[in-house]
Amino acid sequence: MIEIRNLRTLVKIAELGSYTKAAQALGYAQSTLTFQVGAIESHYNCPVFDRTGKTLKLTAFGEQLLEYSNSVLREYDNLEQLGKSDAIPQGCLRIGAPESLTLYRLYPLIIAYKSAYPQVEVRMINSPCELLIKDLSAGQLDISFVLQPECMDENLHTELLLEEKMCLVAPAGHTQPDFFARIRGNGVLHRKGMQLSPGI
Fold first, then answer.
1. Pair (9, 75) in one structural domain
2. pLDDT tens digits for range 82-96
3. pTM, entire model
4. Do 168 and 131 belong to one domain?
5. What's the domain count of the chain?
6. Which of 16, 80, 118, 164 gives 21 a disulfide partner, CB atoms 3.0 to 4.6 angstroms apart?
7. DSSP string of 124-193?
8. Residue 108 belongs to what domain range?
9. Distance between CA 144 and CA 125 in Å, rounded?
10. Which residues are within 8 A (CB) of 27 and not within 5 positions of it... i.e. 6 or more apart?
11. Which helix (H) or strand (E) holds 49?
12. Segment 175-185, tens digit of pLDDT
C-alpha cells in the first residue's frame, strides 16, 4: 500500500529535481526521502528516478506515476476539506476557455474571484472548445467554458450559462434574396460549434 506522504515526497523531489532540496523543503532527513522513494519502487518493482551521474530524472514509469500522484493528492486534499465549512479555499484551479471568451467575458470574473480568494492559484488555459472538452475529460482541467451546444459526455456535468442570438450582415442589394430565408429555416452550424438559431 502506498502512503500519501510518500507520494508527496515523490512530487516534491520531481518538482525541485533534488533529494537535498526536497528534504529541506519537507523538513525531513535525506535518508527518509530515500526510504520513501524506495518503498514506492519496491511496491511497483520499477525505478522511479534515473540517478545517472549528478542528474536526477524521472523514468518513463516515474513520469506516469507523477501524473497519477498529482491527481490523487488533489483529491485527497479535497477529501480532507469535507465538513470544514469555514475552510478557506486554496490550491490550484485550472480553468479552460477559448481565448475570445476569456478576454471578453471571463476576465472580470477571474479578477473578482482572485480578489475574494487570494489563496487560490488560478491557471487559465486557452484552447479550442474540442480540446477543452478532451482535457476536462482527461482530468487536466477542473472546469471549462465552451462555445458550443451542450456536451453529451456522461462523465461530465454541464450547465447552460447563456444563450446568445447571432446576426448575419450582408451588403444592401445582396444578389441572393432567398439566402436569409434558407438560413432561418435550417440554421447554420459553424466550424467552431456555435449554432445560428433558426429563430433569427
1. yes
2. 766 566 777 889 999
3. 0.45
4. no
5. 3
6. 16
7. EEE--HHHHHHHHHTTS-SEE--SSSPP--TTS---------------TT-S-TTHHHHHHHH-EE-TTS
8. 91-144
9. 9
10. none
11. strand 49-50
12. 665 666 665 55
